[in-house]
Amino acid sequence: MKSKNPKPMKSILSVIVLFFLSLGLNADNGHQLWLRSKSNIPVQVVSKRSSAILTIARQELQHAWQGEANQTVVLGLTREKQIKGDGFRLSAEGVHANTERGILYGVYELLRRQQTGQAIRDELVNPSWENRLLNHWDNLDGTVERGYAGHSIFWRAGNDSLTVTPEDLKLWEAYARANASIGINGSVLNNVNASPKVLSAAYLNRVKAIADVLRPYGIKTYLSINFASPMVIGRLSTADPLNAEVVDWWKNKTKEIYTLIPDFGGFLVKANSEGQPGPQDFGRNHVDGANLLADALNPYGGLVMWRAFVYNPSDEDRAKQAYNEFMPFDGQFRDNVIIQVKNGPIDFQPREPFSPLFGAMKQTPVMAELQVTQEYLGHSIHLVFLAPMWEEFLHSDTWQEGEGSTVARATDGSLFKQKHTAIAGVANIGLDDNWCGHDFAQANWYAYGRQAWDSSLSSEQIADEWLKLTFSRSLFVEGDQKVVLPMEWDLNFLKPVKQMMLNSHEAAVDYMMPLGLHHIFAAHHHYGPGPWWAPKGMRKDWTPPYYHQADSEGIGFDRTASGSGAVSQYHEPLQSQLSSPETCPEALLLWFHHVSWDYKMKNGRTLWNELCYRYDQGVQQVRQFQKVWDQAERYVDRDRFGRVQQRLRDQSLNAMEWKDACLLYFQQYSQRPIPYDLERPVNNLDDLIEKDQRTIRAYE
Ligand code: GCW
Prior knowledge:
Structural class: alpha/beta
Helix content: 25-40%
Number of helices: 20
Bound molecules: 4-O-methyl-beta-D-glucopyranuronic acid
Shape: globular
Low-confidence stretches: 1-24
Number of strands: 17
Mean pLDDT: 95
């Protein structure tokens, strides 16, 4: 029988096509990051010069212009004293800067303001630090140390490990563009636990290929070096920094690098730290080692970033060791050496006080190293927005030059005369489609770049920008995408999701290590809880009990004068403030004090009860995030929604494990009940310990 409808086939087909189209709309692998905006609005870009960087600036404007149609935008070089380094001037006319790189950053700023609805007025914009780097802990075999987003984007194992493919070039370019859009201008391409091989001719050729892609985006390439390289690849009998042959070897190697990469940035060095070779192996010190490399790099303007992450299994409190080791050298380093210091004195814990080296080394440039990858903060499973943590750190007052001597000011050149200033973040980037594993971990890459550019930006502003750039103002109903009114989107999506991001760091601190607890994570993988872990014969400073010091009396590490005395490394009046449990911020109480289980907190609770409430509050927060996200479903494409939803479920389960593990373990010492109005544990301590041991065995 003939159908009444003459074109049934066609309409079925079109339904199928529509269905797949809408599926397409819903399939978002996150690869575009915060650079999603496209526009057909024409713009007239005027620039007297042409160069690779300016071509990119022009293309970016043409690709995403959202201002008036056919508006003229002038990109111009100028010579203005007030513009510093990569800074720029925005005006109704366009962007002016002293360098082409500055123009590119100005263009990205202009577009960001259009896309996020921020005013564009005449304004001078200068970066907080001269060098804003990402450190990649990428190994040459393609694995990434503490990476949770797949293998390296730079290195791989196998026969084609050194072949530069079109896919490589495309990926590196997308990486460079993302970095440039947030002001990052340097990349260290390999792990600080560095293979000497990276300095071999074959690998340097690949480094050159990468540098060539990064350059037009204003990004300089750096390498981590292994201090024993002259012995391993140079076949010398020593790597003694004062040996003439060693000096020559580094000079020649540096020359070879600059022949390939004329704008090479310099070396990052982890020496005499966690088993890495260093000058101390030859009876020399950090100054000898750093200055050797500084002299080799100096003719080319290269920098040495020498890490202060050093500690030994001595009787001295680990938190004091870097300060003790480096302070005597203040003023002895060449002026192209910067001492790279992790934000806290131990190791990227969920919350640490700032390292006392900040502000204390007054005659040596010091730079902060932040960890963007979430080694101790839930890998790429937990949603933890790190901007609030970095904001707290950068704005911490060191008091070294009176009130207002914040960590930011102690490193950005405004307090001390420094030839160079810098900041580094350990990257969370890998080959995963969405680069970072968790779609919200992209926000940490974004936030790091934005704060490195402008340390005064608030976490709120950064979260706001990132959400607006990363999620479109859309409603997704049954696979159909519709644009929604900004007001509706702001109210139902932006506001609650932003609040979730802003609460997420404190929540993680609460369910992992509240009130100043630290280093109580599981061994090796550092993902779950492990406050019990202390195998016989293990270095004490690698075991959690060394850090939490729980006993029948109480809990916490006494770092006052009656304990390790670490407080003495801080400047007054901070030193006195931290010394007394009454004036020490409660968020750091157990970092600096061993207090009794019945110690009265400011809110009247005992310490034990407060600990229980904090762990519980952390878990409840994550449960709340699940509600927020489920309610956001209508505004997010199916792919990203599903990925985040699944991870929040895993985060909830893991947060409950953290809470149960820590409370049940500490309860053995406190001998007090978990307050009865709190939810009861759902895990048994023995099971959690057994699970932990199984995982550890798998590593050993
Ligand atoms: O946090 C520790 C990590 C190591 C890392 C080391 C460092 C690269 O567990 O994986 O090694 O710090 O920063 O050198």
